[in-house]
Design goal:
By secondary structure, the protein is an alpha/beta fold. The protein is 34% helix and 17% strand. The chain has eleven helices and 13 strands. Bound molecules: magnesium ion (MG).
């Protein structure tokens, strides 16, 4: 690849009105926030990245405030003037700094974009260059949609109907204790055949296993992150008690976490959010762990703008991403 030299990086904090509120077991977001990263090379190529942090530390500890702080004070000064041949150099340049994966992801994503553009390469093909042979992008991706908790099951059913009409191939519903078994039962009564999955965002504990076992009767594609964000071990105790496949989201930060979760039997499916794991370099490692272990993989979403979604869509077109991804239309 033709190298790039990073001349400037500008940050654009944004707030967008949400087309549809997403209420999860963490609460509801008032609006969509993000820090958009604009990276300019010495040849005037512009690469874009998105840091999908929220205003409050909810899904992760990072916020828009922490992202602006670490980007401005530490990450950007480290990168200005550097000549980069491959985006996988970025985690090495930033390795002295602990944590803050979303902020690291955002600058790395801007570098991937700039390098791909500077080399006239579709982003998906730039990703594939870092994988073993046989990982040619498919040119398309499977997508599903995520539906937050509504006031009533009737309202949820109305939204599901609308989304199916729009062509989404898989429906994901957010759940919490008290908004779970009856919801699944009523949805299955109306739609016995759709690809249906539930996402608990860590709302349960291991002693809820008898309750969670009731979900096994609904032929779910998966149950996402039922237990603690930091608890791969307890998921390994829960998975053997369920016939439904557990998918881990919040618990997976690295390729090592992925290997540990798979080998402990904590889950049978992995949700990869490139922003959660610090970038596409780590994402490519996680991808390879899943392919080696033949574990189904899909790309999750953090309500990204079109910038974050475009890059995730490129990644989702890799052949090892085998399940529908949370990449809904940009009008959402
Ligand atoms: Mg999730």
């Amino acid at each position: 690849m033709q190298p790039i030299t990073i001349e400037a990086i500008h940050l654009h904090p944004i707030g967008l009105e949400l087309a549809e509120k997403l209420r999860t077991s963490y609460g509801a977001e008032p609006f969509k926030s993000a820090v958009i990263v604009e990276l300019i090379t010495s040849h005037g190529v512009i690469g874009w990245g998105e840091c999908p942090t929220k205003m409050k530390p909810s899904y992760t500890y990072e916020t828009m405030g922490t992202a602006l702080h670490v980007l401005n004070e530490f990450f950007i000064p480290k990168l200005i003037g550097k000549t980069i041949t491959t985006p996988t150099e970025i985690p090495v340049l930033l390795k002295a700094y602990r944590g803050h994966p979303m902020a690291k992801y955002a600058v790395e994503a801007a570098v991937w974009d700039a390098l791909a553009k500077a080399n006239d390469l579709p982003l998906a093909e730039a990703f594939a260059l870092h994988l073993p042979e046989g990982n040619t992008p498919k040119g398309s991706a499977l997508v599903g949609v995520s539906i937050g908790m509504q006031d009533t099951i009737e309202a949820t059913l109305e939204i599901i109907t609308k989304r199916l009409e729009q062509g989404y191939g898989r429906i994901k519903l957010k759940i919490e204790p008290g908004w779970d078994v009856e919801l699944a039962r009523r949805v299955r009564a109306v739609y016995p055949e759709i690809q249906l999955m539930l996402d608990a965002n860590s709302a349960y504990r291991l002693h809820d296993s008898d309750h969670l076992r009731q979900l096994d009767q609904f032929n779910l594609l998966m149950l996402e992150q039922p237990l603690g964000a930091d608890d791969i071990y307890e998921h390994s105790k829960l998975q053997p008690q369920l016939t439904t496949a557990i998918c881990l989201d919040e618990s997976i930060h690295t390729a090592n976490d992925t290997r540990m979760a798979i080998e402990l039997g904590a889950c049978r499916i992995i949700n990869l959010k490139p922003a959660r794991v610090g970038g596409y370099t780590e994402s490519l490692k996680i991808y390879q762990v899943c392919v080696q272990h033949q574990v189904p993989l899909w790309i999750g979403g953090l309500l990204e703008t079109g910038i974050g979604r475009a890059a995730n869509l490129a990644f989702a077109s890799l052949p090892g991403v085998t399940l529908p991804c949370d990449i809904s239309a940009t009008d959402r």
